[in-house]
Amino acid sequence: MAKITYVEFGGKEHVVDVANGLTVMEGARDNGIPGIEADCGGACACSTCHVYVDSAWVEKIPAKDAMEEDMLDFAYEPNPETSRLTCQIKVTDDLDGLRVQMPEKQI
User: Fold this and answer.
1) Domain total for the chain?
2) pLDDT tens digit sequence for 32-88
3) In the beta sheet, which residues pair with residue 52?
4) By C-alpha distance, which of 52, 43, 8 is closest to 23?
5) Boundaries of each 2Fe-2S ferredoxin-type domain copy (predicted)?
6) Residue 69 belongs to domain spanning
7) Closest CA to 18 of 99, 74, 101, 83
């Protein structure tokens, strides 16, 4: 289990425990965190679970694959360094303390 902090665009923080094996997107969805829409349900077929990963965590999470890179092209104001789709980040104990910031809006 990992404690993950989801930060809304306006700055409100939500700290939740997310079970290993779930995705960061499922953690947001299951805990009613606003700002992550997840329209495709985690199939990496949209960009509505886009977040900015805290810079301290960028190198600690698995790298983006080509499909995620392609979908991020459709995200609202993607950042080449910190933008990720939360449906593509599997939760493990190693992610304990992860912080993600929601963009102003999802497309």
Assistant:
1) 1
2) 999 999 999 999 999 999 999 999 999 999 999 999 999 999 999 999 999 999 999
3) 83, 101
4) 43
5) 2-106
6) 2-101
7) 99
Write 68-76 long-range contacts (CB < 8 A, 24+): 68/44, 71/44, 71/45, 71/46, 71/47, 72/47, 73/47, 74/46, 74/47, 74/107, 75/47, 75/50, 75/103, 75/106, 75/107, 76/47, 76/50, 76/103, 76/104, 76/105, 76/106, 76/107
pLDDT in the model for residue 107: 85
- Asked, for residue 107, whether it belongs to a domain, the answer is no
Summarised one tens digit per residue, pLDDT across range 86-107 is: 999 999 999 999 999 999 999 8
